[in-house]
Amino acid sequence: MSTSTASRATNRASSAGSGGVSFGGVLRSEWIKFRSLTSTRILLIVTFVATIGIGVLTAWIRFLTIDGLQSAAAEQNRTLTPEMLEQSFPPGAGFDLYNLPNAGLQITILVLGALAVLFISSEYSTGMIRSTMAAVPKRLPAFFAKAIILVVASYLVTLVAGVIIFAMSIPILQGTGLELDWSTDGVIYSVFTGGLYVAGVALIGLSLGTLLRNSAGGITVLVGIFFVLPIAASFLGLVPGDFWKDLPKFIPSEAGGRFLSIGQVDGMLDPWQAGLLFLGYVVVFMVPAVLVLKRRDV
Amino acid sequence: MIEANGLTKVYGSKTAVHGVSFAVQPGQVTGFLGPNGAGKSTTMRMIVGLDRPTAGTVTVNGVPYAKHQDPLHQVGALLDAKAVHTSRSAYNHLMAMAATHRIPKSRVQEVIEMTGLTDVAKKKAGGFSLGMGQRLGIAAALLGDPQTLILDEPVNGLDPEGVLWVRNLVRYQASLGKTVFLSSHLMSEMAQTADHLIVIGRGRIIADAPMQEILSGARQSKVLVRTQHASVLATLLGDSGVKVDQSETETLQVTGVDPRQIAQVALENGLLVYELTPQTTSLEEAYFDLTKDEVEYHSHVSGQPAGPSSGQQPGTDQSIPAAAGK
Fold first, then answer.
1. Do B70 and A22 touch (CB under 8 A)?
2. Using the beta-carbon criterion (under 8 Å), do A127 and B106 form an inter-chain contact?
3. Quick check: B96 and A36 CB within 8 A?
4. Considering only CB atoms, which residues of chain A are within 8 Å of chain B?
5. Edge-to-edge strands of the sheet including B55-60?
6. Which residue, A203, A241, A271, B287, is most buried by CB atoms nearer than 10 A?
7. How far is the alpha carbon of A283 from chain B, nearest alpha carbon, in Å?
8. Residue B247 belongs to what domain range?
9. Quick check: is B301 in a domain?
10. Which ipTM was obtained for this model?
C-alpha cells in the first residue's frame, strides 16, 4: 500500500526512531521492569543476606558439633582422626562440608522462586501485561527475556552468596583439624551448581505465574512443590513396598538437591541423573506456560 | 488503516462481537460509539492482538498487528488506563515500553511533557488519579509516534482542560494523515471530535457512516414554529399528513415538512408566524434512534424513556448540534 509506505518513510524522521522489536530491546525492557521495582530490590537483598546468614550459621553449627565430638573423645583420652569425623557425617545426607556454599539454599529458592512468580503474575494483577504484550505482540520474547533475567539474577546471587559463605566457613572450621579449603573435593562444584538449582526453581516459578496469572496461587503451588511435597514424600517411605520407598528421590526438590552433591551413593540418583531429572521438571513446567501464553487472551 | 473482516469474539456462551466488518480510514478521526457492553473494548483488544478472534480477521495497514516488526510505531493503543504496574514510576514504565523498540530516552521525555506528566513522572503510577492514569496511557500510546492511534474511552476521568487537550490531540494526529480510532460512550465528545462514526450495539455494527450522514439520516428534520394560532396551524398541517406536536401554547414541533411549506400554509390562511426554526438533530438523538433496540443493559427508571423526548431541549451537554466541531 503506497500510503503506508509513504507514511512509514516520514516515520523514520520521527523523534521516536524507527526500530522494530528486537530480542535485545525486549531483554532491556524486562531488565528495566525488574530493577525499577522497590520490592524486587528488597527481595534480592533479603535473599542475599539470609542465604549468607543461614550458610554461615550452618558452618558454625557444624563446628559446634565437631567440637563436641572431639571434646567427648578427648575426655575418653581418644583423638578423632579427620577420617573418623568425616564418617560421622553420612555422605549424601547433606552434611558434607564441601556443600556448605549451598547451605542456605532453602531460603534462596523460597524467596527467588516467589520473586519469579511475581515477576509475571504482578503484571497480570496490575494489568501491565496488556502493555507488555501490546509492545511485544509475539509474546514469547517477553517470556524468555524474563526467564533470562531471572536465571542470571538467581545464578549470580547464589554464586556470590556461596563464595562468601564458604570463605567465612573456612576460618570457622579451621580449629577442627579438618582439611577444608577451596581445593576440597566438591567445593567448586557446589559453588557453581547451586545457582543452577535456584535458577531452575525460578523458571518453575515464572511458569507457575504465567499459568495461574495469580501471585498467591503461584507462590502457594511453588511452596507446595518444594516444601510440602518433600514432607509428604517422606511419609510415603513408610508405606510398604519398594516402589514407594524409591519414589521420594524423584521429586523436584530431591532431584535438585542431589544434583548439588558429588559422588555415588547407594539408593540415590547420580548427581548428573538428578540434574537431568530436575531439568526435565523445569521443561515440564515451561512448555505448557509458553503454549498457554501464546494462545490465551491477555 | 484498520480493516476488520467478519470479526467475532465469543466468551463462553456470550458472543461479545458478532461478525463485524469495518474499515477505519487514515486522515480522519473515526469514532466508535456504543452503549456499555456493546463490544467496543473487545474489538479494540482484538485489533492489537491481545484477544484472539473466535472468527474473522483484523489487520492494521494490511498486516495483522502481531505480524508487524515495529508494532509500537504502527499502532499506539490506550486500551485500559490501568495497564501499568502500580509500583513502578511513570517514567520507568515508559522507559521499559520504549526499550522494546529502542525508542530513545529523549522521546520518553517528549511524551511525558506532551501529556503534562513532568511533575509526577518519577512517582509510582499506583498513586495516580484516574485522569493522570489516562494521561500516562496516552503517553504510552504516543511513544512510538504511531501511524494509527487506538484510544478506548480516552477522556474518562479527565478534567475539561484534559478533554479539550485530547480532542485537539486526536484532531491534530488525524490532520497529519494518521488513522485515529476513538471509542466513547459520550456522544457530545464524539460529536465534537469524530469525522466518521461506527456505531456498535450488542456486538453488531449498526451504522458506519460520516458523522454528517448519521446526523441527517437519523430522523426526519423538525421545524420549530411559534405562532399565536398554534392549534389552527396544527390542524391545518395535520390534515396534510404532517406530524405536529404542540409542546407549549404558542409553539409547535413539526416533523416531515420544510419551513418553506409551513410558511406557505400560514400565509394562505392568514396566520401570523413569528418564529420558524429548522432543528438540527443532535448526535444523542441519532444515537438513541440507532441503538434503541441494541442496548445491552436497559435501565428501567420509571418515567424515563430510553430515547429523548420529542420536545427538543438542546440544553444538556450531550445534545450538541451537528455544526459543532466542523
1. no
2. no
3. yes
4. 1, 3-4, 7-8, 11, 14-22, 25-26, 28-30, 32-33, 36-39, 122-123, 126-131, 133-138, 295-298
5. B14-24, B2-11, B55-60
6. B287
7. 26
8. 220-279
9. no
10. 0.88
Say which of B26, B73, B80 has its CB closest to residue A127. B80
Domain finish residue from B187, B210, B233: B210
**Which segment of A26-35, A65-74, B3-12, B317-326 scores lowest on mean pLDDT?**
B317-326
Number of domains in chain B: 2
Kindly tell me if the per-residue pLDDT of B121 is higher than 50: yes
* pLDDT score of B313 more than 90: no
pTM value?
0.84
Return d(Cα A157, Cα B160) in angstroms, integer.
51
Give B-chain residues touching A5 at CB under 8 angstroms: none
* Domain limit, last residue, from B190, B210, B230: B210
Q: How many CB atoms lie within 10 A of CB B270?
A: 8
Q: Cell numbers of A151, please?
A: 536465571
Mean pLDDT lowest among A135-144, A204-213, B208-217: B208-217
Identify whether B312 is part of a domain: no
CB contact under 8 A, B82 and A122: no
Sheet holding B29-33, edge to edge: B75-78, B148-152, B179-184, B29-33, B196-201, B204-210
H or E element in which residue B159 lies: none
Q: Are B24 and B151 in contact (CB under 8 A)?
A: no
Does the structure show a pLDDT above 60 at A7? no
* Residue B295 binned pLDDT confidence (cut-offs 50, 70, 90): low
First-residue to last-residue Cα distance in chain B? 22
Residue extents of the structural domains in chain A: 35-295
Is B325 inside any structural domain?
A: no
Residue B158 contacts residue B134 (beta carbons within 8 Å): yes
Question: Cα Rg for chain B, rounded, in angstroms?
Answer: 24
Say whether A19 and B103 touch across the interface (CB within 8 A): yes
Q: Report the C-alpha gap between B151 and B83 in whole angstroms.
A: 13
* Cα separation, B197 vs B287, whole angstroms: 10
CA distances from B287 to B181, B253, B282, B293 (A): 18, 20, 9, 11
Residue A108 has pLDDT above 60, yes or no: yes
d(C-alpha A229, C-alpha A243), whole Å: 17
CB B84 within 8 A of CB A128: yes
Same domain, B127 and B250: no
Amino acid at the residue B183: S
Query: Which CATH number characterizes residue B250's domain?
Result: 3.30.70.120
